[in-house]
Amino acid sequence: MSDFSQATSMQGLKRRVVYVTLYEGIAIVAASAGLAWTSGQGLGHSGVAAVLASAVAVVWNLVFNALFERWESRQAVRGRSIRRRVAHAIGFEGGLVAFLVPLFAWWMDISLWQALVMDLGLVVFFLIYTFVFNWAFDRAFGLPASATGAVRPA
């Protein structure tokens, strides 16, 4: 861990709140533009869809990361390898697709199939974004206790 991340190591609820706030703020801007471009609808209409999606994502983020960190804390191998980060990103985004495709279909008044196809571009973007964001966040704020073995949650 770098000197900077050691000095700024953040844990628990504070870590999750900062993580979600930064992640979703960037995501709303990117998703608004992506949805407007792929749907052909205005930025305002797409922006509302992005904010709705963000609200769903925040709840899913809190649930998924709590479950992931609980699983992670029970693993014999510590740290966050590329393989573990890829599994995290795929698991998070896969669950999010299940929630967001029906939301997009309803809000944009399109079929589930059209919403899924439209969402595929966002899924690819968000897989990469999630991976890069998590790596950068951990570099800036240090690994959570679940990844270092410092604390074993009950």
Architecture blueprint of SSEs:
Blueprint: H1 3-7, H2 12-39, H3 43-73, H4 82-108, H5 112-141, H6 145-148
Helix pairs in contact: 2-3, 2-5, 3-4, 4-5
Total domains: 1
Q: What separation lies between the terminal Cα atoms?
A: 26 Å
The 3D shape can be described as elongated
What is the strand content?
under 5%
Backbone CA Rg: 17 Å
Mean pLDDT: 83
| Beta strand count | 0
Q: Give the helix tally.
A: 6
Written as H for each helix and E for each strand, in order along the chain, the element string is HHHHHH
- How much helix is in the residues? over 70%
Output the structural class.
mainly alpha
pLDDT below 50 for ≥5 consecutive residues: which ranges? 1-7
Largest beta sheet, briefly? none
What is the structure about, briefly put?
This protein has 6 helices and no strands. With 154 residues, the protein is mostly helical.
Characterization of this structure:
This protein has 154 residues and is an all-alpha fold. The protein has one domain. The chain is built from six helices and no strands. Helix 2 runs antiparallel to helix 5, helix 3 runs antiparallel to helix 4 and helix 4 packs antiparallel against helix 5. The N terminus is likely disordered.
Could you name the key traits of this structure?
154 residues; mainly alpha; 6 helices; 81% helix; disordered N terminus
